[in-house]
TrEMBL record:
Molecular function as annotated in GO: transferase activity
Major location (coarse): cytoplasm
PTS EIIB type-4 domain location: 1-159
SUPFAM superfamilies given in the database record: PTS IIb component
Protein name: PTS sugar transporter subunit IIB
Claim: Transferase is one of the keywords in the record: yes
Top-level class of the enzyme under EC nomenclature: transferase
Pfam families: PTSIIB_sorb
E.C. no: 2.7.1.-
Cellular localization per UniProt: Cytoplasm
Keywords (A to Z) from UniProt: Cytoplasm, Kinase, Phosphotransferase system, Sugar transport, Transferase, Transport
Amino acid sequence: MRNVVLTRVDERLIHGQVMTSWLKLCNANVILIIDAGSASNAFLKRILFAAAPKVVELQVMNEADAAAYLKEDSPAGEKVLVLSKTPQPLLAMVRSGIEIKEIILGNMGGAPGRKHFNKSISASADEIQAFRDLVDAGVYVYCQMVPSDAKEDVKKLLK
């Protein structure tokens, strides 16, 4: 399996906080974005590649390709940061046999059909169920906006 050093749900995908905090914290040299919409849209992919640091390899994949990629052996020294807009692709990874020990929940903004939990997190019924299924599968899901923030257990939000 690939050497995944951090997994995060954040609808913004690549943005300043990921680049200045999370990437440095885990010393990742590969960013894997699991998002079918971005993977199939050449314009969105160009934007993501433009936003990623040139010293980091960027992969943008749909769920099936990401699962196959993550099941491959890591080259020596590889450290992968996994990003997804929503929890469903990460649940698909777990269901396909990829081990994910913990997920950091970042920004999921308000939208029609989403319940608001705090200033940065809103989720639809399907997203809430995906988080519950991840927790039931033994994945520790917690909120932490930047590395210095205190962890907030998502189980409290899902009650």
